[in-house]
Specification:
Helix 2 packs across helix 8 and helix 9 packs across helix 11. The radius of gyration is 24 Å and the shape is elongated. It has 14 helices and 8 strands. It has 2 domains: 204 residues, Orthogonal Bundle (Endonuclease III, domain 1), CATH 1.10.340.30; 118 residues, Nucleoside Triphosphate Pyrophosphohydrolase (Alpha-Beta Complex), CATH 3.90.79.10. Helix content is 42%, strand content 15%. With 344 residues, the chain is an alpha+beta fold. One of its GO terms (biological process) is base-excision repair.
């Protein structure tokens, strides 16, 4: 691969991002974790707000978990936020707040894996360290015509070896970032090969196979679910609880809900609320359906507004005034339901 040509292309075509204007390993760490599973343009406002709220690793380590999860609200995959919080505490405790500059030490920090460690070493410390994300995998498998499924160990080793051989001894961090940029903007799922600066050496392009590679294992089938969600109101307050079970929604707040197979009437809704949560309530109105997708689940939420008629407070729940609800972290699906209730 002509890395000089690639680096020259990158200098001309690279997009402007706030994390590209710094060598601060803390800011680079935050950006790299946010960029996992999320497009760069979407990340920018979240990154800016995060740095404003938690400008240093010490500030993040001292924050309450709810503050951290709230700052992440809308990005999804909330384990990333929890791991950043744990990692920050670990860095402050073991390294005096200074992010280490060795791979071994970085990998010992909660939430930092091979890619994030490589990115920090490369972009913050300018070390010759591979940073292999999905963008780089597309570029490398196509350029070298690697036709094996990308999740198997032998393919991962082949990709790593190829990147290690490509990276020059000087300015390797520029080439690392250029590979990521090429995959993100040109060598996409549907590649724009005509705009590629290294297409002349790309074996997949030369064989007309750029649309076939990389070989990716089929995703698990989408699971469709439906839930009745109860907006239980009493004296200007709404009933919510914190999700404590380990999973994708852990540490987010939610309204009472029950899995159902089809839309239900108001009478059935209040009966289920009584049966499941022991709450006597009067039905007020059905709110519009809300679609919520996460990982392989597509959930239809059927929200109903009810008014609690007694003092019952189920275990784990709390009453929160409507103005205060904006301070609690909710999933995007529940946040849309709150907007239907005029909670901004």
């Amino acid at each position: 691969m002509d890395v000089d040509r690639l680096a020259a292309w990158f200098e001309i075509n690279k997009r402007a991002f706030p994390w590209r204007e710094t060598k601060d390993p803390y800011r680079i760490w935050i950006s790299e974790v946010m960029l996992q599973q999320t497009q760069a343009q979407v990340v920018i406002p979240y990154f800016d707000r995060w740095i404003e709220k938690f400008p240093t690793i010490e500030a993040l380590s001292e924050a309450e978990k709810d503050e951290v999860v709230k700052a992440w609200e809308g990005l999804g995959y909330y384990s990333r936020a929890r791991n950043l919080h744990r990692g920050a505490k670990d860095v402050v405790s073991r390294f005096g707040g200074k992010i280490p500059a060795t791979k071994e030490e970085l990998l010992s920090i909660p939430g930092i894996g091979e890619y994030t460690a490589g990115a920090i070493l490369s972009f913050a410390f300018s070390q010759r360290s591979p940073a292999i994300d999905g963008n780089v995998i597309r570029v490398i498998t196509r350029f070298f015509r690697i036709r094996e499924e990308i999740s198997i160990a032998s393919t991962k080793r082949a990709i790593l070896k190829a990147v290690e051989e490509i990276l020059p001894k000087k300015n390797s961090h520029i080439v690392s970032e250029a590979l990521i940029e090429l995959g993100a903007t040109v060598c996409k799922k549907k590649p724009s090969c005509i705009a590629c600066p290294v297409k002349k050496g790309c074996l997949a392009y030369l064989h007309g196979e750029e649309g076939e590679i990389p070989f990716i294992k089929k995703r698990a089938a989408t699971v469709f679910l439906r839930r009745a969600v109860f907006a239980v109101e009493q004296s200007g307050k709404l009933l919510i609880r914190r999700e404590v079970e380990k999973g994708i929604m852990q540490d987010l707040y939610a309204l009472p809900s029950i899995e159902i197979s089809e839309p239900i009437s108001g009478a059935v809704a209040v009966a289920l609320l009584k049966e499941k949560f022991g709450i006597d309530a009067g039905f007020q109105l059905a709110l519009p359906e809300v679609e919520h997708t996460y990982t392989r689940f597509r959930v239809t939420l059927n929200p109903v507004k009810v008014y609690a008629q007694g003092p019952e407070l189920p275990a784990g729940f709390q009453w929160v005034s409507f103005p205060d609800l904006k301070e609690f972290p909710f999933s995007s699906g529940y946040r849309r339901i709150l907007r239907l209730l005029n909670v901004k």
